[in-house]
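Hello,

Our lab assistant flagged a job as stuck in the queue for most of the afternoon. It eventually completed. Since we weren't sure the result was trustworthy after the delay, we are filing this so someone can double-check. Below is the sequence as submitted and the structure that was eventually returned. Let us know if re-running is recommended.
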Amino acid sequence: MNQVTVNEVEALYELFKELSSLIIDDGLIHKEEFQLALLKSPYSENLFLDRVFFLFDEKKNGVIGFDEFIHTLNVFHPCAPTEDKIDFAFRLYDLKETGFIEKEEVKQMVIAILMESGTKLSDDFLEAIIDKTFADADADNDGKISKEDWKAFVLRRPRLLKNMTLPYLKGITTVFPGFVFNTEVEE
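-- returned structure --
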């Protein structure tokens, strides 16, 4: 479960302190700070970012504490089990939190991702992509994607998890070299 080393935690704490003081210096990351860090705008609407924030906010209190920050980032670590990445991605798309992904949820997320990337598709082409994707993922043809359907779908298409790994999390002290010299904890 815990892929992050002591030195990586120290480096991530420095990052957390910086993020949690972008707007309100209270030791917590607020949604606006999360948006500012990732989108360079604290008040833009973005379904994908909202979902990521929702999943980071494990206590569901509207802010991200350091424990939640580390716990969730652990999923993105290069050494994190694929199963954890699959589960996180499933929860990202399960907008209604029903334990299933419905076609409308897939459509909402695809539209949000396309809008974020600035990609424009005709409605017909968009519907064709969603229909094909949903048909491929809904293995038992029951009109919804279960966790088992999702896992099989993703394992057949590993590139879907590409964004679930942040390579710089491994050895993050090399990204922030100053932290190496400030560490007092030996691994």
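-- support follow-up --
The delay was a queue issue, not a problem with the job. The result is valid. Residues 77 and 169 are 6 Å apart (CA to CA). The mean pLDDT is 85.
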